[in-house]
Amino acid sequence: MDELKRTPLHDLHVELGAKMVPFAGYEMPVQYKLGVLKEHLHTREKAGLFDVSHMGQVILSGESVEQIAQALESLVPVNIAGLAENRQRYGFFTNDAGGIEDDLMIANRGDHLFVVVNAACKTQDMALMRAGLEPKGVTPRLLGDRALLALQGPAAEDALAALNPAVREMRFMDVATVELCGAECWISRSGYTGEDGFEISVPEDKAVELARVLLAQEAVEPIGLGARDSLRLEAGLCLYGHDIDATTTPVEAALTWAIQKIRRTGGAREGGFPGAAKILAEFDTGASRARVGLRPEGRAPMREGVEIFAQEEGGAPIGRVTSGGFGPTTGTPIAMGYVDIDHAAPGTKLFGEVRGKRLAVEVAEMPFVTQTYKR
Amino acid sequence: MKFTEEHEWLRVEGDLVVVGITTHAAEQLGDVVFVELPEEGSTVSKDDEVVVIESVKAASDILAPLDGEIVEVNSPLADEPSKVNDDPEGEAWFFKMKIEDLSALDDYMDEAAYKKFIG
Fold this sequence. Notes:
The complex is a heterodimer.
Chain A: H1 10-15, E1 19-23, E2 26-31, H2 36-45, E3 47-51, E4 56-61, H3 65-72, E5 88-94, E6 100-108, E7 113-117, H4 122-133, E8 139-142, E9 146-152, H5 156-161, E10 175-180, E11 183-188, E12 197-203, H6 204-215, E13 220-222, H7 225-234, H8 276-285, E14 289-296, E15 307-309, E16 319-327, E17 332-340, E18 349-354, E19 357-364
Parallel strand pairs in A: 3-13
Antiparallel strand pairs in A: 1-2, 3-9, 4-7, 4-8, 5-6, 6-7, 9-12, 10-11, 11-12, 14-17, 14-19, 15-16, 15-18, 16-17, 18-19
Chain B: E1 2-3, E2 8-13, E3 16-21, H1 23-29, E4 32-36, E5 43-44, E6 49-55, E7 59-63, E8 68-73, H2 76-79, H3 83-86, E9 95-98, H4 111-118
Antiparallel strand pairs in B: 1-2, 2-3, 3-9, 4-6, 5-8, 6-7, 8-9
């Protein structure tokens, strides 16, 4: 086992009373003194500050942003060439079987693309990008000198505007270079909680100062990975390695919205990404299973791995929970998972087997909470 | 009051033993969101899984500390699982059990020994 890495905010987490746990090769705060439940609720009511510096921040450089975008489209089935300057978009790397290698955020920063990938996939993503992009004259560079903070919640705009009012002009999925605490920060108006908010890439030597200035505000509390997970689950957002992986296709994963028409059959830049034949065929034929929201009827949480059945007794499983737990904002257990397509319609009554008992669960629309993005 | 290595507390009340989890255990578990209690009248053996508690983080089992019969359960807990965090060593007891021989409790730790155990 390699030694765990630390983010530039490590000592601050410890000082704030965080419980540190290993996560994707890093020592990360799972919760602070408030605890998961209160941290979750605080983020939905005011603002939460998350350290997501473990994620991979990558600059893609080349001759022009057009050339870089075109190259990246060979790995990602998303309209990147049509991504306007200072805008960001969600995407994923696909494989030849049509599965998802990782999901990522892609920003057009004028003369280059800036992408953020999952911590656990960094090494593999870099290899994938080098192999796929370098022959096309595009160089990926994993940044080792910047931290990444997420500030999420209804009070996030006021909290960040106190440092630089320019951020008020940003809309959902805008990106901008903004000076905070005298440092050049790359900000996007996005996040992974279902709330309005920002992700802030900050030079590592300024990260602690920025975090302290934000935390000094009444509305801002530090939030750990525990609440980050329940927030994204309530928002219906996928966790890579759980809800999506190398064996799930974008159609199965209900992520077809992320593949714009221009990349689909009949589009001007149709296909041209790994697994295109399989994925585009699935748009027409449909997939045999689908990622759905699940609402257990009782109080017992249905966690990852719980098998889903169509009947209360007998029969083979028709699905499986991939993320599940208690939703602090919904006040109920919530889950998501894959079920056979015949059982995927919202309102379908199914059963989840928990400790040997089949408990009623209903297929539900996601998100479980209303998203409050500032569009 | 006696304590088990599974972080349960045991309190003698007449000829019954009242069972709950310690403040230390409740803190470690985090916010409790689900409690499943055994049936009143059920006969249990030592180390049977009799209670399921789930926190925001994970599920855990509470084991029967002794052989005996579950004579009463704290049913309101199922509707208000957060009481386990609010008052683990008071209001949030799980069940009362009848055991053959109360001297079986002597094998468990007293408060001083438990404090040492949790460091």
